[in-house]
Design a protein that fits this description.
mainly beta, four-stranded antiparallel β-sheet, 4 strands, SSH-N
Length: 100
Amino acid sequence: PAEPPPAEPPSQAPGQQEQHLQLMMQLLRPQDAIRLAVRLESARPRRVRYLLVVRPEEAGAEVETALLGVDFAHEGATRCTLGMVLPLWSDTQVFLDGDG
């Protein structure tokens, strides 16, 4: 039998992205700042995932840049978990593969 089509993801409520950013900031040290946050496609229907580029705000801290993977259980979740930490060094090459 044919599989039913996947359920449409719920549309993001106004302000939901800002709430997610606030929750992600709580995972970081006080001196860290999010330089870039990208919402990713998730293999699980309701899970919300972000990839963050994080580094300290202090001058000369470029050597401490890291990629963080952050997960929310669902769109309206009030807490998030850190799923990946990848420090970026001057000779690091990152390849993101897939169609997302």
